[in-house]
Specification:
heteropentamer, A mainly alpha, B mainly alpha, C mainly alpha, D mainly alpha, E mainly alpha, C: mainly alpha, two-stranded antiparallel sheet, 19 helices, 2 strands, E: mainly alpha, 17 helices
Chain lengths: 189, 112, 511, 657, 435
C-alpha cells in the first residue's frame, strides 16, 4: 500500500461518511432551508468524488451547474412558497415506517445483487490513466461527433429539452394580470 | 492491528465500495421521497437519487467503461435534472397559488 | 358463388332497409319480407343443387374420415396466419340453413306490427341472421368465430331496445354469458390452431392432424362447454328463460329457434369431429348432465306462470335432447340430434311466433289470466296445439322422429362398447330421459288447456279477431314443415345421414 | 251371382290392402281442411261414406279369405318409412291375418254405424265438421294400429289413437270438466305408453343384436321390429335365455310386463282406469266407438298379438290374469252404484275387458282356449256394448239428462230404443240365445279347464253382478214411472239415422254368438274343441237369472227396499259410489307431490340458485372493483411506495423463477 | 432524420409567428402545425432504412410504422386541440389562456422526442429522448392551472421524476455490466447475473410507469382526470405508444437473447393489469377516470404481444397498437361515444392477434384471462352503448362537435373497419418486414 493509495483511501472514507451523514440530515430535518443546504453539501462532496475518479471537468460542471444553479433554484422555490418559516410536521407513523422499510429493502436488495454478481475488475492500466489527463478534449470531441460512438443527436435533443422546460416553466408560472377573471373551478362533465 | 486493517485487500476503495456508497445515497433519497411532506423536500431527495445515479455512471465508467461515455452521461443527467427541477418548481408555484400550501398530503382532491 | 350470396343476401337487405328513409315504415317491412322471401327461394334452389350433387355421397362417405363439401368457395384472407374465407355446404349445414331461412321468413312476417324504430329493428335482425348463416356454412374456425360474434352482438340491442319486462338486465346477462361461452371457444380454437402443428384454422386440414389424447381430453370439454352455454347446457342455461321472455317476438323466435342450435351444431361439427378421444372420455359425463337438462327443463316448465317462460323452459329441455344425442356418440344419437335441432327450431319458432301474436291481442302473457281463446282465435289455437303435440313427440309430427332417434341412440350406446359398464349407465340415462315424454305431455296440455280451452274468463277477450293474413302465412309455413317432416322423414334423413358418417368413422377409431 | 263370387277369388282385395288405411286418412284430410268450414251436412255425409266404403272393402277381404280357405300369413303391403340405422328401420304396412281381420271387421263396422248415428245425434252442434274429422282420424289410427306388421307401427298409431281420443273427449272444450277429462285421459295413457316405449326399446335392442344371426331363419321378417320376427320361436328362445336380471325379474318377463303396462293404460285396467269414467264427458257416439268397441280393446289386441311371447313367460301371464280378474270384480261393484247411465256403461266396459284380459291370462295353466275365448268375447262385446251406448245416447238425446233416476216410462215413448236396449242387456248378461252367453261361456270354460278355480268363481260372481246392474239400468230407464211429464216436448223416437244403427247392432248382437270364430282364431288348434263341460253354461245362466230377479225386485216397485239396503250398508255404499276414492288419490299425488315437491323446487332452484349464481359472479366482480377503487388514496407518496415496492416484488419473482 | 427536422422546424416557426401576430388574427395559425405534420407524414415514406449519424440514428421498417403512428396521433390531437386552444370548449378556464399556441409547440416538441425515441440506438440518446417525450407532458397536464390540473401535474412530475431516477440507475448498471452505451452491443454481451436482474427490474418499473402497468399505474387515474381532455387523449394514445416503443427497444435490443426468462413476469403483469383495469373501470362514475382505467386494461392487452418471438410479436404489437388503440381511445376521449359501438369488431381483430401470440408460447391460461377480461370490458362498452341508444337521450354531455372533428373521426372509424377486413394494410407491413 503506497502512501498515495493510503491517502486516497482515507479521503474516500472520510468523504463517504460525510456524504451519507449529510444526506440523512437533508432528508430528516424539519426546516426545508436547512435540508437544501445539506443537499448542497452532499453535491459538493460528490463533486469531490468525481475528482477522485479523475472526472475533473465533471466535478467543475457539478459544482457550477448543480450546486450553483439547481440548489439556488430550490431555495427560490422555498422562498416563493413561503414555507421556510413553517415547521414541517413529522410524517404519519405508518408512512414513516413504510418509507423506511422500502428504503432499507431497496438498499439490501441492491447490496445483495452487487455482491452476488462478479464485477470482474478491469485493473487500472496505464493506457487509461494518460487518457484521463486530456479528458475535456475527448469529451468535447465525442459529444459532437456524428460517427459511431458520438452523441451529437443526444446533444441536440438535450438542447430542445432544456428549451421546452424553460418554455413550460414560463407558461405555467407566469403571473396572470389582475384584469382577467380568476380561474374558476371547472370540471369536464 | 491498525496496520492489518490498512493492508487488508479490502481496505483500498474498490468498485464495490463505490457501488455501496451510491446505492446508500439512492436509498436515502428514496426514503426521503417517500416520507417528506413538503413538495420541495421531495424534490431535494429526488436530486439526491439523480446525483447518486450520475455517481454510479462515473464509477462504472472509471472501473469498467471507456472513461468518456460515463462522464458524458453524467453531464447529461445534470442537465436533465435541471430541466426537471424547473418544471417541478413551476408546478409547485402554480399549486401554491391555489392551496396556499405545498404539503403533498393535502393534495388528494381526486381520489378513489 | 351461391353460398356466399346466401350468407350476404340478408346483409344486403339490411343495407337496403337502412337506406330507406324512416317515414316509409311500410316500405321497410316489405323490403325485409321480400328479402327474406327471396332468401328462402335461394335456399330451396341451393338444396336442390345440393341434392343433385350429393347423389352418390351415401356410399362414398361410408368410410371417409372427412366431410364431403359441396358448392365450396375458398379465398385466402390472412394466409400468413392460415386464415381463409372457406365456405361450403354439407348435409348438416344444409339442414340448418333451411331451418334458419324458414324461421327468419316467419319471424319477419310475425313482427309485422313493430312500430317504433322499425328500421333499426329489421336491420339488426337481418345482420343477426347473416351472422347465423355465416356460422352454418363456414369451415374455417376464425371465420366461424367471427360470424359467431356477429350473431351474438346485435342481440343486445334487439332485446335492450325493443324488449319488454327487465329488458336491460336480460339483454346484458344474455350477451355476457354468451360471450363468456365464446371466450371458452376462443381458447379452444387457439389450442387447436397451435396444437395441430399446422398453424391453420381450416377445419378439413385440422381433421388430418391427430391430436395427442390428453390434449384432446382438456380441449374437448373447453369447446363443448363453450358451445354448451349457447346450447343451454344445464348449469349455464339461466340466460335463456330471461332472454327469451323479454325479447320481442321475432328475436325470440330467431334466438330460441336458431341461435340455440349454434351450440349443438358447433359441438358436433368441431368438438366431436376434431377431438374424438376427448368426446369418448367426456361423453358419459355430458350425457348425465344433459339428462338433468331434459328433466329440469320440463319440470321447470310445469310451474311457470308466464307463457314465454313456459316455452323458454321447454326449449331448454328440447335443447337438452340435442346435446344428449350428441353425447351418445353413435350414429342414431347424432343423427337424432341434428333432426331434433331442425324440428325443435321449427317448433319453438312456431311457439314464440304464436305467443307474440296472442300477446299482440290480449296484451298479457300470464297463463292464468287467459282462458277459452280457442273460440275467439281458432287458427292460432290449432297451430298452438299442433306445435304442442309436436313438442311432446306425437308420431306423424317431426318431434317424434327426433325423439325416437335420440332415445334409440342413447339406448343402443356406443357402436363400440354397447354392453360394457358405460353401456349400462347410458341405458339408465336414456330411461330417465324417456320420463320426459310424460312430463312434457303434462306441461304442454296443462298450459295449452288453461290458455285456449275452457270458458272465456274475462269479457274483453270475447271480441278479439283471429290471425291476419301475414300471421296465417308465417304460422302456416311452420306447421306444414312440421307435418311434412313428420309424415315423410326421409326428406331430412337422406340429407343428414351422409354428413354424420365421417364423424362416426372418426369416433370408431378410424383416425 | 257366380261372377260376383269369383271377383273375390283373384285376391285383388288383399293385394290392395293399403286401401283400408288410405281412405280414412284421405277423408280425414279432406273433411278436416276443406269441408269443415264449408258445410256441416256435407262433412258428415262424406265422413260416413268413406268409412262405409272401407267397411265394405274389409268385408271384401274377409270374403276373399273365406272363399280361398286360407289366410296369407305375411304383411300384405309394406313401405319403408323411417331408417334409423343400417339394420334397424321402421316400415308402414298392412298385415292381413285372422287376428287383424277380426279386429278390422269389428272396428270398421262399429265405426260406420257410429258415424251414421252421429249424423243424427250431432245435428244441432256447430263444431260438427271438426267432430267428423277427428272421428275419421280416430278410425284411421285404430285401423293403422290393428293392421300393424311391426311393433313400432303399433306404437305410432297407439299414440295417434291416444291423441284422437283426447281431441274427441275434449270436443266440448267450453266445459271445464271435458277439458280436464281429456287432459287426464291423454296423460294417463301417455304414462302407460312410456312403459310400452321402454318395452319396445328393450325388444328392439335384443332383436337388433340377434337379428343378424336369427333374421334369415325367419321368412317374413324384414327388421328386428317385425312381429313375424319377434314372435318367432328362434327369437323367443334367444330372448328367454337372456340372463340379465333386474329387480329379481328376468329381462324377458320385465319387457313383457312393461308392454302389458302400455296395454293396461289403453284398456283402462285397474291402476290406470281412472280416465275412462271421466272420458264420458265426450259426446255419446264417441264413447260408443272409442270407449266401448275399439280403443279400449287395443290393449287386449296387443297382448293377443304378442301372445307367443307372453305364453313363454308365466310371470307376465300371471300378472295379466290377476289384473284382469281384479279389474273385473272392482268395476262390476262400482257399476252397481252409479247414477249416470254412461258411467254405469263405462264401468261395465271395464269389467268386460277385465273378462277378456283374464281370459288371456289363464292360458298359463296350459290350455290356450282362453285366447280364442277372449277374442270371441271381444268380438261380441263390441257390438252389444256399442248398442248399449247408442241406446243410452238416444235416451239422453231425448231427455237431455244422464241421471238414471230422472228417466222412466220410455217403453211406449221409444219402442225401438227399448227393444234394442233389451236385446243388448240380455246379451251382456249372458242369456242363452244372445251372443254374450256364448263368449262368456267360453271364457268361464277356459278358466275352469286351466284349473283357475278362484278366477272361475269370481267370474261367475261378476256375471251375476253384470246382469244385476244392467237390468237395474233397464228397469229404471224404461219401466219406472215417467218423471219427464213436466218437460215441454215429450221424448219420442229419433230420426232414422239414429234408429237404423240401433237395429243393425241389435241384429249383430243377437247373431254374432253363432259365428265360428274358433275355426279361424286359435293359438294351438288341438286344444280348442277338446272338451265341452255342460255344467259351466248352466251355472252362468242361473247366476244371470238370479241377478235379473234381484234387479227386478229392487227397482220395479217403489224404492223403499233400495233405500233400506242403502241405509244398512251406507258406509260401504258411499265408498263404492266414490270409486274407492282412487281419483282423489291420483289427484293428490299429481297436485301435491309432483307439482309441489318436484316442479316448484325445480323452478325455485332455477330462479334462486342457478340464476343467483350468475348474479353472484356479477356482484363479486362489481364488489372487487369497488374495493380496489379505494386503493387510489390520492397520496402521491403511497403511489411512490407502490411503485418501488412493486419493482422489488417483481425482482423477487424474477429471481425465484 | 427528415421527419424529426420537419417537426422541429414547424414548432419553431409556430413559436415565432405566434409572438408577432395579434391575438385576433392568429386564427389562421392553425394551418402551420397541420401543414408541418402532413409534410412530416409524407417525408417518413421517403426514408429507406439507412443509418445516419454513425448509427446513433437508424431506421428499420418497424420504426417506419411506429413513426407513422406517432405522427398520425399528433395530427389528430392537433385538430382536436384547436377548440381547446381557441377557448370555445368549456375547459379553457380563463381569458389569458386563449390563443396560447405554446400548447401546440410543446406538443410538437413532445412528438419530436417520441420520434427520436424510436430511432435511438444507445443508452444516452434513449434516456434523453425519453425525457423529452415525458417532460412536456408534465407541462401539458398542468396546463389549465386550476386546482385539479395542478394537482395532477404535481403528482405526474413527482412520480415521473422517480421513475426516471430508477431508469437512470438501471441504465447505469447496464453500462456497468457491459461497458458500452450501444444498445445492440449491450444485448449481445450481457451475462445473466443478479445485478442484471436488478437493473432489468428497475427498467421494467420505469416502463411500467409509462405504460401504466398494474403496480406502477397509480398515477394514471388522477392525471387523466385532472389533465385537459385533449391531453388525456394524447396521454393515453401517444405516451402509451412511447412506453411501448421503450419496451420494444429495451426488450428486443437489450434483453434480446434472454427474453424468454421474462415471459412469466410479462404474463403476470399483463393479467394483473387487464383484470384490475377492467374490474375497477366498471365502478367508475367520472368519465375521464373511467377512460383511465379502460386505457390501463388496454395496456394489459398490449404487452401480451411481447410474449412471442421478435418477428411474430412485432406484427401483433403493431396490430394491437393500431387497432385497439387510436380508435377506441380517441373516440372515447373526445367524448363521441357514438363511435364506441364499433370497437368490438375492429378491436376484436387486434385482440385476436395479441391472443394468438400469447397462445403461441403456451400461455393458454393467460388467453383465458384475457378473453374473460374482454367480456368485462364489453360490459362497460355496452353500458355506454346503452346510455346512447336505449336510455332516452339526455342533454348532450359532450361539447358541440365541429364538423372537422366529426368528419375526422368518421373517417377513422371507416379505416378501422376496413383494417379489420381488408388485409392490404396488414400485408404491406409484412412485406416491408420481410425485406
Amino acid at each position: 500500500m503506497t502512501l498515495e493509495m493510503l491517502v486516497y483511501a482515507a479521503f474516500f472514507y472520510v468523504f463517504a461518511f460525510c456524504a451519507i451523514l449529510l444526506a440523512i440530515c437533508a432528508v430528516v430535518t424539519k426546516r426545508i432551508l436547512r435540508s437544501a443546504v445539506y443537499l448542497m453539501g452532499v453535491l459538493l462532496i460528490s463533486a469531490a468524488f468525481y475528482v477522485m475518479l479523475n472526472a475533473q471537468f465533471l466535478a467543475g460542471v457539478q459544482v457550477l451547474v448543480y450546486v450553483g444553479g439547481i440548489v439556488v433554484l430550490l431555495v427560490y422555490a422555498v422562498m416563493l412558497t413561503q414555507t421556510s418559516q413553517v415547521l414541517e410536521t413529522l410524517p404519519s407513523r405508518i408512512r414513516n415506517t413504510l418509507g423506511f422499510f422500502v428504503g432499507v429493502g431497496f438498499f439490501c436488495f441492491s447490496l445483495w445483487c452487487i455482491f452476488n454478481s462478479d464485477l470482474t475488475l478491469i485493473t487500472i492500466n496505464s493506457k487509461n490513466i494518460n487518457l484521463a489527463t486530456q479528458d475535456i478534449r475527448a469529451i468535447g470531441k465525442k459529444l459532437l461527433s456524428t460517427e459511431r460512438g458520438g452523441y451529437a443527436v443526444a446533444f441536440e435533443v438535450l438542447s430542445i429539452l432544456l428549451l421546452v422546460s424553460v418554455l413550460g416553466g414560463i407558461v405555467l408560472a407566469r403571473k396572470i394580470s389582475p384584469g382577467e377573471t380568476s380561474p374558476k373551478e371547472t370540471h369536464v362533465g | 492491528m491498525l496496520a492489518s486493517i490498512f493492508n487488508s485487500p479490502y481496505f483500498y476503495p474498490s468498485i464495490y465500495h463505490w457501488l455501496v456508497l451510491s446505492s446508500a445515497l439512492f436509498s436515502i433519497g428514496i426514503y426521503g421521497f417517500l416520507t417528506r411532506k413538503n413538495a420541495v423536500g421531495i424534490l431535494i431527495s429526488l436530486e439526491l437519487c439523480l446525483n447518486s445515479g450520475a455517481l454510479n455512471f462515473v464509477v462504472f465508467d472509471y472501473f469498467r467503461g471507456n472513461h468518456i461515455d460515463g462522464k458524458i452521461m453524467a453531464l447529461f443527467i445534470i442537465a436533465v435534472a435541471a430541466a426537471e427541477v424547473v418544471i417541478a418548481m413551476a408546478i409547485f408555484v402554480g399549486m401554491f397559488k391555489h392551496k396556499k400550501t405545498i404539503d403533498v398530503t393535502e393534495m388528494n382532491q381526486m381520489r378513489n | 358463388m351461391q353460398v356466399s350470396c346466401l350468407v350476404f343476401l340478408p346483409l344486403l337487405t339490411a343495407f337496403l332497409v337502412i337506406m330507406t328513409p324512416r317515414r316509409f315504415s311500410y316500405l321497410i317491412r316489405w323490403i325485409s319480407v321480400f328479402g327474406t322471401g327471396l332468401h328462402l327461394a335461394l335456399t330451396i334452389m341451393i338444396s336442390f343443387l345440393f341434392w343433385a350433387e350429393a347423389k352418390g355421397d351415401g356410399e362414398l362417405l361410408r368410410t371417409s374420415l372427412v366431410f364431403k363439401l359441396h358448392l365450396v368457395e375458398k379465398i385466402s384472407w390472412f394466409d400468413s396466419l392460415g386464415i381463409q374465407y372457406f365456405v361450403g355446404i354439407d348435409g348438416i349445414s344444409l339442414t340448418m340453413v333451411v331451418l334458419t331461412s324458414i324461421i327468419i321468413f316467419a319471424g319477419v312476417l310475425a313482427s309485422w306490427n313493430v312500430k317504433e324504430r322499425a328500421k333499426e329493428f329489421f336491420a339488426l335482425l337481418l345482420i343477426l341472421v347473416t351472422g347465423v348463416f355465416g356460422v352454418f356454412v363456414s369451415f374455417d374456425l376464425f371465420l366461424f368465430f367471427m360470424f359467431y360474434e356477429l350473431a351474438v352482438l346485435p342481440m343486445y340491442l334487439l332485446i335492450g331496445i325493443w324488449g319488454t319486462g327487465p329488458k336491460e338486465y336480460a339483454a346484458m346477462k344474455l350477451t355476457l354469458m354468451l360471450l363468456i361461452g365464446s371466450a371458452f371457444i376462443l381458447v379452444g380454437f387457439f389450442a387447436l390452431y397451435y396444437g395441430s402443428g399446422f398453424y391453420t384454422f381450416d377445419l378439413i386440414k385440422l381433421a388430418t392432424a391427430n391430436f395427442p389424447v390428453d390434449f384432446q381430453r382438456w380441449v374437448f370439454p373447453m369447446i363443448f362447454v363453450g358451445f354448451g352455454v349457447i346450447g343451454a347446457l344445464y348449469p349455464l342455461h339461466t340466460w335463456s328463460p330471461d332472454g327469451h321472455s323479454s325479447a320481442p317476438t321475432a328475436v325470440s323466435m330467431l334466438h330460441a329457434g336458431v341461435l340455440m342450435k349454434l351450440g349443438g351444431y358447433g359441438a358436433l361439427r368441431i368438438a366431436v369431429f376434431l377431438l374424438p378421444e376427448g368426446a369418448k372420455y367426456w361423453g358419459l359425463f355430458f350425457m348425465g348432465l344433459t339428462t338433468i337438462n331434459i328433466l329440469y327443463g320440463s319440470f321447470g316448465a310445469i310451474w311457470q306462470k308466464d307463457l314465454k317462460y313456459f316455452t323458454a323452459y321447454s326449449s331448454v329441455s328440447h335443447c337438452g335432447f340435442v346435446l344428449f344425442g350428441i353425447s351418445a356418440l353413435n350414429f342414431m344419437g347424432m343423427k337424432g340430434a341434428v333432426i331434433q335441432m331442425f324440428s325443435h327450431g321449427i317448433m319453438t319458432g312456431l311457439f314464440f311466433g304464436l305467443i307474440g301474436m296472442v300477446y299482440g291481442r290480449t296484451h298479457t302473457r300470464i297463463i292464468s289470466e287467459m282462458g277459452g281463446l280457442a273460440r275467439v282465435m281458432p287458427w292460432l289455437a290449432t297451430c298452438f296445439y299442433i306445435g304442442g303435440l309436436a313438442s311432446l313427440g306425437l308420431p306423424g309430427l317431426s318431434g317424434f322422429i327426433a325423439e325416437s332417434h335420440v332415445f334409440l341412440g342413447g339406448f343402443f350406446g356406443h357402436s363400440l362398447q354397447s354392453v360394457g359398464q358405460s353401456g349400462a349407465l347410458m341405458k339408465t340415462f336414456t330411461l330417465i330421459a324417456t320420463l320426459s315424454i310424460v312430463v312434457t305431455a303434462v306441461y304442454v296440455l296443462r298450459g295449452l288447456g288453461r290458455v285456449f280451452q275452457g270458458p272465456i274468463e274475462n269479457a274483453e277477450f270475447a271480441n278479439l279477431e283471429d290471425a291476419m293474413l301475414s300471421e296465417k302465412l308465417s304460422t302456416g309455413i311452420l306447421v306444414v314443415v312440421l307435418i311434412v317432416v313428420g309424415l315423410y322423414p326421409s326428406i331430412l334423413i337422406d340429407v343428414i345421414e351422409p354428413a354424420i358418417r365421417p364423424v362416426l368413422n372418426r369416433l370408431a377409431g378410424g383416425l | 251371382m257366380q261372377n260376383f263370387i269369383n271377383i273375390f277369388t283373384h285376391g285383388i282385395f288383399i293385394k290392395h290392402a293399403w286401401f283400408v288405411l288410405a281412405v280414412p286418412f284421405l277423408s280425414f284430410v279432406f273433411v278436416g281442411l276443406v269441408l269443415r268450414p264449408l258445410s256441416k251436412k256435407a262433412s258428415g255425409l262424406i265422413a260416413t261414406l268413406s268409412i262405409s266404403v272401407t267397411t265394405l272393402f274389409v268385408y271384401g277381404i274377409i270374403a276373399e279369405c273365406f272363399l280361398m280357405h286360407r289366410v296369407p300369413s305375411g304383411a300384405a303391403w309394406q313401405v319403408p318409412w323411417l331408417r334409423y340405422q343400417d339394420g334397424l328401420s321402421a316400415t308402414l304396412g298392412v298385415l292381413v291375418d285372422p287376428l287383424s281381420l277380426l279386429l278390422m271387421c269389428v272396428v270398421t263396422t262399429v265405426s260406420a254405424l257410429v258415424h251414421l248415428y252421429s249424423i243424427g245425434y250431432m245435428r244441432g252442434d256447430e263444431g260438427v265438421g271438426r267432430y267428423f274429422a277427428f272421428l275419421n282420424l280416430f278410425t284411421f289410427s285404430m285401423l293403422g294400429l290393428v293392421v300393424a306388421p311391426n311393433i313400432l307401427q303399433i306404437f305410432i298409431f297407439w299414440e295417434l289413437v291416444g291423441v284422437s281420443s283426447f281431441l274427441l273427449i275434449g270436443y266440448y272444450y267450453e266445459k271445464p270438466q271435458a277439458v280436464a277429462a281429456s287432459k287426464k285421459a291423454f296423460i294417463v295413457t301417455r304414462f302407460a305408453d312410456l312403459g310400452f316405449f321402454i318395452g319396445i326399446f328393450i325388444l328392439g335392442y335384443y332383436g337388433f343384436q340377434s337379428f343378424s344371426r336369427l333374421g334369415p331363419t325367419v321368412p317374413q321378417a324384414l327388421s328386428p321390429f317385425d312381429f313375424a320376427y319377434l314372435t318367432s320361436p328362434a327369437f323367443i328362445e334367444f330372448f328367454k335365455h337372456e340372463t340379465y336380471m333386474i329387480f329379481g325379474l328376468s329381462i324377458f318377463s320385465l319387457t313383457l310386463i312393461l308392454v302389458f303396462m302400455g296395454a293396461c293404460g289403453k284398456s283402462a285396467m285397474f291402476p290406470l282406469h281412472i280416465w275412462l269414467p271421466d272420458a264420458m264427458e265426450g259426446p255419446t257416439p264417441v264413447s260408443a266407438l272409442i270407449h266401448a268397441a275399439t280403443m279400449v280393446v287395443a290393449g287386449v289386441y296387443l297382448v293377443a298379438r304378442m301372445f307367443p311371447l307372453f305364453v313363454a313367460s308365466p310371470e307376465a301371464l300371471g300378472l295379466v290374469q290377476c289384473v284382469g280378474t281384479f279389474t273385473c270384480l272392482f268395476a262390476a261393484t262400482i257399476g252397481c252404484t252409479q247414477d249416470d247411465i254412461k258411467r254405469v256403461l263405462a264401468f261395465s266396459t271395464l269389467s268386460q275387458i277385465g273378462y277378456m284380459m283374464f281370459a288371456l291370462g289363464v292360458c298359463h295353466g296350459g290350455n290356450t282356449l282362453g285366447y280364442t275365448a277372449s277374442l270371441f268375447h271381444l268380438f261380441t262385446h263390441a257390438f252389444f256394448k256399442a248398442l248399449l251406448f247408442l241406446g243410452a245416447g238416444s235416451i239422453i238425446h231425448a231427455l237431455h239428462t244422464n241421471n238414471v233416476w230422472e228417466m222412466g216410462g220410455l217403453v211406449k215413448a221409444m219402442p225401438i230404443t227399448h227393444l234394442t236396449f233389451l236385446v243388448a242387456t240380455l246379451s251382456i248378461s249372458g242369456i242363452p240365445p244372445f251372443s254374450g252367453f256364448f263368449s262368456k261361456d267360453e271364457i268361464l270354460l277356459s278358466a275352469f279347464i286351466n284349473h283357475q278355480y278362484l278366477t272361475f268363481v269370481i267370474a261367475l260372481l261378476v256375471a251375476g253382478l253384470t246382469s244385476f246392474y244392467m237390468f237395474r239400468v233397464y228397469f229404471l230407464t224404461f219401466w219406472s214411472e215417467a218423471k219427464w211429464h213436466g218437460h215441454v216436448h215429450k221424448p219420442q223416437e229419433a230420426s232414422w239415422t239414429m234408429t237404423l244403427p240401433l237395429l243393425l247392432l241389435a241384429v249383430l248382437a243377437a247373431i254374432s254368438g253363432f259365428t265360428p270364430i274358433a275355426k279361424w282364431i286359435f293359438y294351438t288348434k288341438s286344444q280348442v274343441e277338446s272338451h265341452r263341460l255342460f255344467f259351466v253354461p248352466v251355472f252362468g245362466v242361473l247366476v244371470a237369472a238370479f241377478g235379473f230377479l234381484l234387479a227386478m225386485l229392487f227397482y220395479t216397485g217403489d224404492r223403499k227396499i233400495v233405500d233400506h239396503v242403502v241405509l244398512k250398508f251406507a258406509w260401504m255404499y258411499g265408498v263404492i259410489k266414490h270409486k274407492f276414492y282412487i281419483d282423489e288419490v291420483y289427484l293428490w299425488i299429481t297436485k301435491k307431490v309432483i307439482f309441489r315437491f318436484i316442479a316448484f323446487p325445480v323452478a325455485w332452484f332455477d330462479r334462486r340458485i342457478v340464476d343467483g349464481g350468475v348474479n353472484l359472479a356479477a356482484w363479486v366482480t362489481r364488489k372487487t372493483g369497488w374495493l380496489l377503487r379505494f386503493l387510489q388514496t390520492g397520496q402521491v407518496q403511497t403511489y411512490g411506495i407502490w411503485l418501488v415496492s412493486g419493482g422489488l416484488v417483481m425482482l423477487l419473482v424474477l429471481l425465484t423463477l | 432524420m427528415l421527419p424529426e427536422i420537419i417537426v422541429l422546424i414547424t414548432a419553431f416557426t409556430l413559436m415565432f409567428v405566434d409572438l408577432f401576430l395579434k391575438r385576433e388574427t392568429r386564427y389562421f395559425l392553425m394551418g402551420i402545425p397541420l401543414g408541418g405534420l402532413a409534410l412530416a407524414f409524407i417525408s417518413v415514406f421517403f426514408l429507406s432504412n439507412r443509418k445516419s449519424f454513425g448509427g446513433q440514428f437508424s431506421l428499420e421498417n418497424i420504426d417506419l410504422w411506429l413513426k407513422v403512428f406517432f405522427i398520425l396521433c399528433a395530427f389528430v390531437i392537433a385538430i382536436a386541440s384547436f377548440s381547446f386552444i381557441l377557448g370555445e370548449s368549456k375547459e379553457t378556464c380563463h381569458k389569458k389562456q386563449i390563443y396560447s399556441f405554446e400548447f401546440l409547440t410543446i406538443l410538437l416538441f413532445n412528438l419530436s422526442g417520441m420520434l427520436f425515441l424510436v430511432s435511438a440506438r444507445d443508452l444516452l440518446t434513449l434516456y434523453v429522448s425519453l425525457e423529452l417525450s415525458t417532460l412536456p407532458l408534465f407541462i401539458l397536464t398542468a396546463w389549465k392551472r386550476d386546482a385539479l390540473s395542478s394537482e395532477a401535474g404535481l403528482k405526474y412530475v413527482v412520480l415521473g421524476a422517480l421513475a426516471s431516477a430508477l431508469l437512470l440507475l438501471g441504465f447505469s448498471i447496464f453500462y456497468g455490466l457491459t461497458g458500452t452505451m450501444d444498445l445492440v452491443l449491450i444485448g449481445r454481451s450481457t451475462n445473466v447475473s443478479p445485478l442484471f436482474w436488478f437493473a432489468s427490474v428497475l427498467v421494467i418499473s420505469a416502463i411500467g410507469f409509462k405504460l401504466t402497468l398494474v403496480p406502477f399505474h397509480m398515477w394514471a387515474p388522477e392525471v387523466y382526470q385532472g389533465a385537459p381532455t385533449v391531453v388525456t387523449a394524447y396521454l393515453s394514445v401517444a405516451s402509451k405508444g412511447a412506453g411501448l416503443v421503450l419496451m420494444f427497444q429495451i426488450f428486443f435490443r437489450i434483453f434480446g437473447a434472454s427474453i424468454s426468462s421474462f415471459y412469466f413476469a410479462i404474463a403476470l403483469l399483463s393479467a394483473l393489469t387487464m383484470t384490475l383495469g377492467n374490474v375497477v373501470a366498471i365502478v367508475q362514475e367520472n368519465i375521464k377516470r373511467f377512460m383511465a382505467f379502460s386505457a390501463i386494461s388496454q395496456a394489459g392487452y398490449l404487452i401480451m404481444g411481447f410474449l412471442g418471438g421478435f418477428h411474430a410479436n412485432s406484427q401483433a404489437v403493431l396490430q394491437g397498437l393500431s387497432r385497439t388503440h387510436p380508435l377506441i381511445a380517441l373516440s372515447m376521449m373526445i367524448g363521441l361515444f357514438g363511435l364506441a359501438g364499433i370497437p368490438p369488431l375492429s378491436g376484436f381483430i387486434g385482440k385476436f392477434f395479441l391472443f394468438s401470440v400469447a397462445a403461441s408460447s403456451g400461455f393458454y391460461w393467460l388467453v383465458a384471462v384475457a378473453a374473460i377480461n374482454s367480456v368485462i370490458s364489453l360490459y362497460y362498452y355496452l353500458r355506454i352503448v346503452r346510455q346512447m341508444y336505449i336510455e332516452p337521450v339526455l342533454e348532450t354531455t359532450v361539447f358541440p362537435m365541429k364538423l372537422s372533428m366529426g368528419g375526422l373521426l368518421g373517417s377513422l372509424v371507416v379505416i378501422s373497419v376496413l383494417l379489420g377486413l381488408v388485409p392490404v394494410f396488414y400485408e404491406t407491413i409484412l412485406w416491408t418486414w420481410k425485406n
